[in-house]
Design brief:
This protein is mainly α. The protein has a single domain (about 10-85), classed as Methane Monooxygenase Hydroxylase, Chain G, domain 1 (Up-down Bundle), CATH 1.20.58. Helices cover about 80% and strands about 0% of the residues. It contains 4 helices and no strands. It has helices at about 10-20, 25-35, 40-55, 60-85.
Length: about 90
């Protein structure tokens, strides 16, 4: 994933693997990344919120990373809505 962070298939395989081992925080975080790759930022934000519910407070670095991703997804979603609004 580090070599090709925008790879749909790799993200989907990783997502499935996390679900099989019942690592729901990673599953939802990877789902958020998968949805973002498809430009479905609403679903990405929802998956990020779900991932945050599974993380313990001591995992501050992952919580911070997911919160930053969520802000990024909101900004991208807003930008797309602005573009769509201008084309009408």
């Amino acid at each position: 994933m580090l070599a090709k962070p925008n790879d749909f298939l790799a993200t989907q395989i990783l997502r499935t693997a996390y679900k099989k081992i019942n690592n729901m925080a990673k599953y939802h975080a990877t789902s958020a990344e998968y949805f973002a790759l498809m430009s479905n930022y609403t679903a990405a934000i929802q998956a990020t919120d779900r991932a945050l519910t599974f993380l313990p407070e001591v995992n501050r670095s992952e919580i911070s990373r997911l919160e930053a991703l969520k802000r990024s997804y909101r900004e991208r979603s807003k930008y797309i809505m602005e573009i769509k609004g201008k084309k009408r």
